[in-house]
Amino acid sequence: MNAKALFLSLLLLPVAALAQAPVIQISGANFRPLPLAATAPLVQGEEAKASAQEVDEAFMYDLRASGIFQILDRGSFLADAKEGMAAGSINFSRWADVGAESLVKYSLAQEGGELKAEARVFNVGTGREDFKTAQSAPAAEARLVAHKLADAIYRHFTREQSPFLSRITYVRKTGNNRDIWVADWDGRNAKQVTRGGINLLPSLGPDGAVGYTSYQQGEPEIYIRRPDGNTARIKTSEGQMATGISFSPDGKRIAYSLASGESTQIWVAEADGDKPKQLTDTRFGINTSPSWSPDGKRIAFVSNRGGSPQVYVMNADGSGVRRLTFQGNYNQTPDWSPRGDLIAFTARDERNAFDLFTVNVDSGKVARLTQDQANNEEPSFSPNGRLVLFTSTRNGGSQLFVMTADGNNQVALPAQEKATLLTPDWGR
């Protein structure tokens, strides 16, 4: 196309296409969190007041934990608290004075049993409204409308899905019991899956199924609880012990470890346990913790075949085994990023502390994510690969934290009870 034709084609484009809001580039050395001011909700009607605090807490947590925004302290705001939601009613110079580059205003109203929210995003520099969204949810699920608002804003700035509507699973230790729980991404709205006994290593399938290892029959076996509430055990031969289920990205296959005699090997099977196939075969060796690549073509796992636990990758049929980690002598719990480039894992350092690292699948380059904050273990990537869920003992007991995939913006999940929380998995 010559220069004249290109000029004419640009003239014919809609104005909106030429004036889109900038997209936040999350990756790269030039990334910086966007300074964003978010006001308290404008509550319309008495019914919505009962939900306002819960919605605002969830909404603000989502924005803060995302890692892409620098959320400004509401105590620093200089604008009139009665300022409206339309651009013409906003004194943008007051928002610029506190360092805001973007401004979010939102409202809440309730109609019958439905909670409705509207959010508007403004560019402080231009004084224009860049984006508007309306979301709703049942009034009994107030936090859901907050997650929907945050998701829409995240997508507006990144053109990517957010993790705010996803689910997590984890083990909660209470006394001698270890039970499986499933919750919203921020740990709220938690539901108990198992009741009593020793239940470990939960994994969420793409269809909402929960797989886990249980000792309810004495020896470790794998169970899968389907969304309809039915629970089935994965059958194995007598004397074999199955642990550590991992669902393939499409949910059609599972990978797990099977201990028999003096060795533990990686197996794959169909989602219901049929057609099991052994992938690894290291005599007297231990192979555990399978994690699927996002395309379902490879599996990361831990093996001691080289003398110490290290992270390996292989094709999903067991061929092409390749050692991935060479630093340290105790690397475990790999989790493959949905973006495909990184595998997060737990490593024990020279001081016998556990910390989190990532390794680039292609180059083998290792990056450290946590350090000098007690023990940090069991990483699990968010569905978009931008965040990592993990456990940490930095506050005393083992709690759930989230951080960006490069180790920044480490924050605890809100209002965790004083219980030991272990081995989280973030649903895809």
Q: Briefly, what is this?
A:
The protein has five helices and 30 strands. The chain is mainly β and 428 residues long.
Explain what the structure shows:
Strands 1, 2, 3, 4, 5 and 6 form a 6-stranded mixed β-sheet that branches. This protein has 5 helices and 30 strands. The protein is globular and about 75 Å long. β12 and β13 (231-233) form a beta hairpin. It has helices at residues 3-12, 15-18, 46-65, 92-97, 142-158, and strands at residues 34-38, 42-44, 69-71, 102-111, 114-123, 128-138, 167-174, 177-184, 191-192, 199-204, 210-214, 221-225, 231-233, 241-247, 253-260, 263-270, 277-278, 287-292, 298-303, 310-315, 322-323, 331-336, 342-348, 354-360, 366-368, 376-381, 387-392, 399-404, 411-412, 420-426.
Label the structural class: mainly beta
Q: Report Rg.
A: 24 Å
Q: How would you state the average pLDDT, rounded?
A: 93
Total of DSSP H or I helical runs spanning 4+ residues: 5
Task: Please outline the major beta sheet.
Answer: 6 strands, mixed
Quaternary state reads: single chain
Give the termini distance in whole angstroms: 43 Å
Beta-strand residue fraction:
35-45%
Principal-axis shape equals: globular
DSSP strand count: 30
Low-confidence stretches: 1-19
Helix proportion range: 10-25%
